[in-house]
Amino acid sequence: MSVPRGAVHAKWIVGKVIGTKMQKTAKVRVTRLVLDPYLLKFFNKRKTYFAHDPLQQCVVGDIVLLKALPERRSKHVKHELAEIVFKGTGLLGPQRPRGQLVKIPLRAQSGSQERRPLQPPGQTRDQQPVQAPVSQCQT
Amino acid sequence: GPLTGRYLSQGDVVFKSSVKVMTVNYNTAGELSEGARKFVFFNIPQIQYKNPWVQIMLFRNMTPSPFLRFYLDNGEQVLVDVEDKTNKEITEHVKKILGKSKEMLEKEEREKKKLSHPANFGPKKYNLRECMCEIEGQVPCPAFVPLPKEMRGKYKAAMKNEA
Fold it and tell me: Whole-prediction pTM value?
């Protein structure tokens, strides 16, 4: 049931592109500062908008200016890409350096020290009772 | 500090209706960005409080020099360089170029006042007073102080029947 709708409330918005997996559409996250009524502090409130991007020139992480379309393009798309303010890298986060897997040995190769032969249980090495260290207090 | 209702309402930058988005690019370190940082910490809450429908976005450490950018309704963009300026200078400049003038604000207040008549009685949301009994010097509300005998309907009806 299509209800005749008026113009979109937000005419111009600036947001960050979070997804480009749709054809000719970019998913844009817009943050606005909203005042918490008790704490009296402004917090960022997020909202996602879909924007029409005919040339598919948006990459994830772009900061983008959107313009409201005169009429809705589809059920969710009400804006179009006006301008890319800052270009993003297209990477979702810090990437670890990728390369061939290298096998690292568990213990470092120590050629100078020889391995001690294992002692049978019940026999201490030095054959002396272990004495607890006595702290000497100065009186 | 910037977390009081009184401080927020003391802001005097009210944007013209054509301003839709405000973007602040600044750096978290560096002497030249100091004014911008103070502007973001002290003045942006005041501006957002007075202009709840303007989208304000903050970008940190993206460009070497700090600047403000306003996106207007007609597609125009206003770039304001903020490097090496104190936060007071920045607010004054922004008020001068994109803020409503004092006369306009006063005119709007007068228009607002015209809508509600202070002498009307009614719900607290739309009027100042709800009933005549609230005013000092008038007959108090019979819910709190019982009316004298002569004013009660029972007595008046009895007197009428007698006569």
Answer: 0.71
